[in-house]
Structures are given as C-alpha cells and as structure tokens.
Design goal:
The chain has about 200 residues and is an alpha+beta fold. About 35% of the residues lie in helices and about 10% in strands. The strands form two sheets. The chain has a two-stranded antiparallel sheet. It has a two-stranded antiparallel ribbon with strand order 2-3.
C-alpha cells in the first residue's frame, strides 16, 4: 500500500524527535494529547472542514433557456383597388350629361357649330351631376396668372413645370389653381346592381 504521506529524511526525523522529546518532558498538555489515543471517526462521517464554519452550499444556478419563436408573417397580396365608386360617378355623368356618348363619338366629321352645341349640353349636365355629388375647392386661392412664391411645394398639391432647379423656395406664375375634393356623396347602390353597366342599352318596342 502506498503511504499517504511521504516519509521524512533521517536528519529531519532526528531533529523532530529531539524537539518532541523536550516538548513532552516540559509541556504536560502536549504530552497528554500525544499519549491519549484519538477516537476513531464514525464510519460515513464527513471529515471536518477547515477554515471555521462549514461553507454553505452554493445556490443552484438557474439557466434560462431562451427559445426563439419564429413567427411567419403571411403577407397578402394587395388586390385591385375598388372601382364601383368610380364607375358609379361615371354613370352619373353619362346619365345627366351624356358624357360617355360625347367622348366615344367620332366628331371629326362634325362642324365646329355642331360640336359647340353638343359640348354645351354635355357641360351643363355633367356640371349638374358633379356638383350634386362632389364638393370641390381650389388647391390655390390665388387667381390664375398671378405670381406666387412657394417656400416648400408639396408634390401632392403643386406640380412644378418649366425650369425647375433646386429645392426652393420657387417663384413662378400660377397656371392652374388645381382642385381638391372636400366631400363625396354617391347614392347607395341597390342590391344586385352591376356597377360595370355605365349606361343601359335602350330598346324601343
């Protein structure tokens, strides 16, 4: 069996025996400790811990497991914009001013007087239909032909034409005041109505 402690050299043991001899001779307490046999430790007992009070067991380390959840986002393709309202307004212009008939007619063979008379009827009817269902106001309040200075032109409201350079401010002549729809009030379509029929075909019996 291999010894747990390495043996000391001879001269070290000789010196240690000499010291212990006089220690036992003149120190009764030390001699009693060596003379009294040590009690055997009970089986299964844990050896005493050095350094005073026993060290507390470290608290268990809780490791949080981060689980990344991948959520797939279904992006639906944008469908075509609704057209019922536009077709309904077109039907109103056709009903009141024969708007579609006028545009689809080949007027190349008509004289200016005939075209002017037809345009007057179309203008009157379409204007009536538009004013009954759509409220409009000018984008710019100045008169056309007036000189205006734009500190910052909104591309949605103002279209710059001619020699456009830089970011502004821009100074130019107002050629068109523009139009803005304030309110739109279209009649409610009846159930089963086909908005694609802008004007019904007419059959006389």
């Amino acid at each position: 069996m291999v010894p747990l402690v390495a043996p000391l050299p001879f001269f070290t043991r000789l010196w240690f025996a000499w010291v212990v001899f006089f220690k036992v001779l003149f120190d009764g307490v030390f001699a009693a400790k060596i003379f009294t046999p040590q009690l055997e430790e009970p089986k299964g007992a844990e050896p005493p811990k050095l350094g005073g009070e026993p060290a507390e067991k470290p608290a268990p380390v809780v490791v949080e497991k981060v689980v990344e959840k991948i959520v797939e986002r279904v992006v639906e393709k944008a469908g075509p914009p609704p057209t019922d309202a536009a077709l309904q307004l077109l039907a109103l212009l056709q009903r009141e001013g024969r708007f579609v008939d006028f545009l689809e007619e080949d007027v190349a063979s008509f004289g200016d007087a005939d075209i002017g008379a037809a345009a007057r009827v179309v203008h009157s009817g379409c204007r009536k239909a538009l004013r009954e269902h759509v409220k409009l106001e000018p984008v710019r309040s100045e008169d056309e032909g007036a000189k205006v200075t734009l500190a910052e032109a909104s591309p949605n409201e103002v279209k710059l034409t001619g020699n456009v350079q830089g970011k502004g401010p821009h100074t130019g002549v107002l050629r068109h005041r523009g139009w803005r729809a304030v309110t739109v009030q279209l009649p409610t379509a009846v159930a089963g109505h086909d908005a694609r029929i802008v004007a019904q075909a007419e059959v006389e019996l």
